[in-house]
């Protein structure tokens, strides 16, 4: 008998192997940069958590109408994978760069003309 974790792993692998997935039936496919080796899956009381390093996304599992067994509905799974991909692969904005690297880093970007100075540019450290 196949376990729930194995079933969810197969579902995640199948979704990620497509390269681009939809959030719902009529949505535009979005490309995913995650791979199945980096995504870890945990299940607790009908809640599935997908995580990569320090980022995680949770969604509820669906119960089969007849057998009662839990499975990942494709829309919920795809939405979670798209959200996780955006958390892991996104580029930080200038406020996050200023927080991470300090005010002097942002001043150098302004001096080089890479960022336009605004009232909020020098906010923070």
TrEMBL record:
Top-level taxon in the UniProt lineage: Bacteria
Protein name: Uncharacterized protein
